[in-house]
Amino acid sequence: MTYPTQPTASHYINGAYVEDASGTPLSVIYPATGAEIAQLHEATPDLVDSALAAAHRAQPAWAAMSGTERGRILRRAADIIRERNHDLSVLETCDTGKPLSETLVADATSAADALEYFGGIAASIAGEHIQLPEGDFVYTRREALGVCVGIGAWNYPTQIAAWKAAPALACGNTMVFKPSETTPLCALKLAEILTEAGAPAGVFNVVQGKGAVGAQLVGDARVAKVSLTGSVPTGARVYAAAAAGLKHATMELGGKSPLVIFDDADLESAVSGAINANFYSTGQVCSNGTRVFVQKGIKDVFVKRLAERLQGAVIGDPMQMETTIGSMVSERQLEIVLGYIEKGKAEGARLVAGGKRLNRDGFYIEPAVFADVTDDMTIAREEIFGPVMSVLDFETEEEALTRANATEFGLAAGVFTRDITRAHRMVAGFEAGSCYINTYNLTPVEAPFGGSKMSGVGRENGSAAIAHWSEIKSVYVAMTPCEAAF
Ligand SMILES: NC(=O)C1=CN([C@@H]2O[C@H](COP(=O)(O)OP(=O)(O)OC[C@H]3O[C@@H](n4cnc5c(N)ncnc54)[C@H](O)[C@@H]3O)[C@@H](O)[C@H]2O)C=CC1
């Protein structure tokens, strides 16, 4: 590995890198080869405390700055990220094993988009004025919550850190962020860049560690809000811990999203949609449409065309620009995915393509397509978080909608059809936070993103995010003397 992947230190607190070698060692593995590329340490309880103290100290002055000033710093950070996109994308690939052809356009650039977007609206975050009888009025102040905690998953380490930091900081909060222990490198770069852009010390801090470090952060009395991106079981634990302290919470959790393809759809476009809904980032995307419902009349031709198109996938070294499928993030995740593939076969689904581990170093698997999947099979019910597509067939619109919604999850849903009224009817009926018509998995920063049902609470991105990173203070102003009964 010739890329500089060992960071200056494990943590970033109060505007500087900090090391504490007494923490448990944390080894960073490049999943494309299995080689160790960095050695970090988990944060000790004292170190976590010092990060929270730094964020707590910095928050009043940060909130007291004008939105314009805060926004300028965020936008400057966005510019620095864009200038360094190549190196940051290489680091994202080292952290995750995702192909550079993807990380160059979807990770640091998405972080820059978030910083630019929320930097742009920071100055117009405001309350309102409400007129009342006798000249009295109420005005509202939209205020920061205080110290916020962000906790990330491993699939989008740069994007997750920025999607939380940008709106939090725009609203005048400060943050302590804990990346996933599997991908700890990228968030440190965001912290470094925010300092360079002018963010005062303590405004954005990063501490490394596993669940225990996350739990300490969530349980701390100084923390006003917790935003987690992770799995449903972790989300349930973190949400409960936040509730114990009556903290604000945003939970971006897992999914098992449906993609419904009607027989009048543009076939090539629908196949592309199914590919993007299942194999981007080697299938490690929370909103993936892994239950692909295809109307009976076109099922065979759809599966045939999909298998042909899969021949064009280039699996291998993620640093090569022609590569379109990199490695899984870890050996553990690869084993989980292989386990699901065996279950799919054992329960009677037909493996149409892929599904084998590649015989080389690193954690590679061929993208897999199962046909003849039924709703009760494990692969159709549980989130796999890997490149495994399940194709199910259906006859009527009503049936498709009922079966699409028959899941505890509700993150995303998509429909391919040329019938516009049917498309909108389906979308209105989907029990999901993010819906797609004739496309899939696009997540521009302008669009609110988040889940229904067990897939989460709250929304990230879009102007909707402001409500989740601030609160309203209502101020009643009397224009006449105050009267009392006695
Ligand atoms: N809805 C969304 O926006 C997204 C959801 N995800 C979901 O994330 C999952 C994959 O990511 P993983 O890293 O495996 O998830 P995970 O749930 O295992 O871990 C998520 C984070 O929570 C931390 N954590 C674990 N236990 C904790 C505790 N008790 N208190 C505080 N923090 C704790 C972990 O260290 C990690 O940083 C998938 O289920 C996926 O669907 C991933 C990306 C986006």
Strand order of the largest sheet: 14-15-16-13-12-17-18
- Percent helix, as a range, is 25-40%
If you consult CATH, what is the topology of the largest domain?
Answer: Aldehyde Dehydrogenase, Chain A, domain 1
From the spread of the alpha carbons, the general shape counts as globular
Biggest beta sheet attributes? 7 strands, mixed
Family: Belongs to the aldehyde dehydrogenase family.
Protein name: Betaine-aldehyde dehydrogenase
Organism: Primorskyibacter flagellatus
Domain Aldehyde dehydrogenase: 17-475
Mind sketching the topology for me?
Blueprint: E1 11-13, E2 16-18, E3 25-30, E4 35-41, H1 45-64, H2 67-83, H3 85-96, H4 100-106, H5 108-121, E5 129-131, E6 137-144, E7 147-151, H6 157-170, E8 174-178, H7 186-196, E9 204-206, H8 211-219, E10 223-229, H9 232-244, E11 248-252, E12 258-261, H10 267-276, E13 291-295, H11 296-310, H12 331-346, E14 350-353, E15 368-371, H13 378-381, E16 388-394, H14 397-405, E17 412-416, H15 420-429, E18 434-437, E19 456-457, H16 464-468, E20 470-477
Parallel strand pairs: 7-8, 7-10, 8-9, 10-11, 12-13, 12-17, 13-16, 15-16, 17-18
Antiparallel strand pairs: 1-2, 3-4, 5-6, 6-20, 11-19, 14-15
Bound molecules: 1,4-dihydronicotinamide adenine dinucleotide.
The site of 1,4-dihydronicotinamide adenine dinucleotide has 30 residues, from helix 8, strand 10 and helix 9.
